[in-house]
Amino acid sequence: MGLFDEITYKGEVYQTKSLVCGLETYLIDDDGQLWVETYDIVDRSDPSATGIARLRGLMARTNRRLVRVSYTGSIDFYLYAASRVMREPDAIEFVARSASGNLRSIRVVACQARLPL
Questions:
Q1: What DSSP designation does 93 have?
Q2: Does the pLDDT value for residue 10 go beyond 60?
Q3: Cα separation of 26 and 108, whole Å?
Q4: Predicted structure pTM score
Q5: Hey, where are the domains in the chain?
Q6: How are the residues of the chain apportioned to helix, strand and coil, as percentages rounded to the nearest 5?
Q7: pLDDT over 70, % of the chain
């Protein structure tokens, strides 16, 4: 299965494997610009904790900020959600074309949505 990145577009959070696949967070803003969230990592773990609880806070993200990305190529991103009515997966997939971090085009390449009756 592997890792993926998240990309926010029009207020919805999608998954993508077109970028670095390192659990990074991207944003396509209303102007079609591509941004990535950068941050500093600090250790906020509890040294007296035991077991798996000791991992909590180990790599906490701080000083979050958005940085423009100069990416040229295709970005495929998709969303899967459980249908409230049918309890089957809905899926929608987009492909975006980017040049130097500017969105040039976007289109739906697959849509499997079940509408309530």
A1: E
A2: yes
A3: 19
A4: 0.70
A5: 5-112
A6: 5, 55, 40
A7: 84
